[in-house]
Amino acid sequence: MKIRFEERKDLKEKPTGNLGFGKYQTDYMFVMDYEEGQGWHDARIVPYGPIEFDPASMVLHYAQETFEGMKAYKAKDGRILLFRPEMNARRFINSNKRLSMPIIEEDDFVQAVEEIVRVEKDWIPTGEGESLYIRPYMFATEKAIGVHPSHSYKFIIICSPVGAYYPEGVNPVKIYVEDEFVRATVGGTGFTKCGGNYAGSLAAQVKAEALGYTQVLWLDGVERKYVEEVGSMNVMFEINDTIITAPTEGTVLPGVTRDSILHILRDWGYKVEERHLAIDDLMKAGHDGTLQEAWGTGTAAVISPIGELYYKGDVVQINDFRTGALTQKIYDTLTGIQWGDLEDTYGWTHEVK
Ligand SMILES: *Cc1c(COP(=O)(O)O)cnc(C)c1O
């Protein structure tokens, strides 16, 4: 894929201090257009800035939008590393197919990510836990009000230097188990990364925050009985020395972090079960002391220990609201690989040269 480059004269000042998450954007963005009959064309890296599109653009009415989230890390020896970018490329293909949107070939996706990261390498922050967050996304641009798959799309990649995802850092979070709204059902779009999934989930998030909880734990969409995932993270529980996480059967997002952690845990000899776990059994385990640790997993936060669960007025604390030893060990191992501090025996890191 040929990518043209449009230089800007005035580079932005790089932020210092607490970067937050997604507050700052870099100097450039990758953009590519799709037109039915013509396919993807005009791949370019251009100055970051507002884009113009028609008020009738279909994404604004029917929400054909998909996205990805990944990071670039700067190792102490100066290498620039991506983490399993081909997994994001394949997931993006699956999301786009489900939303009746055109796909981007795996190689082109990875090339576009590499190219924008190469251009923005000076934006990769090097403080503890800091990285360059990469947000590829696609949306429908056809001017039309009738409901049908759009005939034109834009694919954009923006980058954002980020610190730790949670203001609290690697400290336990309080999770609200949602018993009214649902995020996904079998046959729906739960396994895709699409904006629509999030739009529908915000009401629960607002409810949770009003009660002093950070995120929502979703139950299955049919019986509201089985644990699925947390907000923007997959979720794992250690009960009686066994790690339990929901299977990815269409309603749960197949996380890259989830997959990586399951590999690591199995290598360490842990018993791992990808199965449905009833919320009643989880709360019971919380009360009788067999629930040892719980954590969420995702690119943004990497791992997020869960210190408290609230379900229909019932509250359990996990590991006395402290980060568990296993949670910490997984965090240290995975971030060690991602930031290039530990040897990568899995072949997961992908150097941008
Ligand atoms: C992105 C996302 C995750 C985590 O996936 P990673 O690939 O590990 O970042 C989990 N759940 C939802 C709903 C997500 O959107």
From TrEMBL:
<dbReference type="GO" id="GO:0009097">
    <property type="term" value="P:isoleucine biosynthetic process"/>
</dbReference>
<dbReference type="InterPro" id="IPR043131">
    <property type="entry name" value="BCAT-like_N"/>
</dbReference>
<dbReference type="GO" id="GO:0009099">
    <property type="term" value="P:L-valine biosynthetic process"/>
</dbReference>
<keyword id="KW-0032">Aminotransferase</keyword>
<comment type="similarity">
    <text>Belongs to the class-IV pyridoxal-phosphate-dependent aminotransferase family.</text>
</comment>
<dbReference type="GO" id="GO:0052655">
    <property type="term" value="F:L-valine-2-oxoglutarate transaminase activity"/>
</dbReference>
<dbReference type="InterPro" id="IPR033939">
    <property type="entry name" value="BCAT_family"/>
</dbReference>
<dbReference type="InterPro" id="IPR005786">
    <property type="entry name" value="B_amino_transII"/>
</dbReference>
<dbReference type="GO" id="GO:0009098">
    <property type="term" value="P:L-leucine biosynthetic process"/>
</dbReference>
<feature type="modified residue" description="N6-(pyridoxal phosphate)lysine">
    <location>
        <position position="193"/>
    </location>
</feature>
<protein>
    <recommendedName>
        <fullName>branched-chain-amino-acid transaminase</fullName>
        <ecNumber>2.6.1.42</ecNumber>
    </recommendedName>
</protein>
<keyword id="KW-0100">Branched-chain amino acid biosynthesis</keyword>
<keyword id="KW-0808">Transferase</keyword>
<comment type="pathway">
    <text>Amino-acid biosynthesis; L-valine biosynthesis; L-valine from pyruvate: step 4/4.</text>
</comment>
<comment type="pathway">
    <text>Amino-acid biosynthesis; L-isoleucine biosynthesis; L-isoleucine from 2-oxobutanoate: step 4/4.</text>
</comment>
<dbReference type="InterPro" id="IPR043132">
    <property type="entry name" value="BCAT-like_C"/>
</dbReference>
<dbReference type="GO" id="GO:0052654">
    <property type="term" value="F:L-leucine-2-oxoglutarate transaminase activity"/>
</dbReference>
<keyword id="KW-0028">Amino-acid biosynthesis</keyword>
<keyword id="KW-0663">Pyridoxal phosphate</keyword>
<dbReference type="InterPro" id="IPR036038">
    <property type="entry name" value="Aminotransferase-like"/>
</dbReference>
<dbReference type="GO" id="GO:0052656">
    <property type="term" value="F:L-isoleucine-2-oxoglutarate transaminase activity"/>
</dbReference>
<dbReference type="InterPro" id="IPR001544">
    <property type="entry name" value="Aminotrans_IV"/>
</dbReference>
<dbReference type="Pfam" id="PF01063">
    <property type="entry name" value="Aminotran_4"/>
</dbReference>
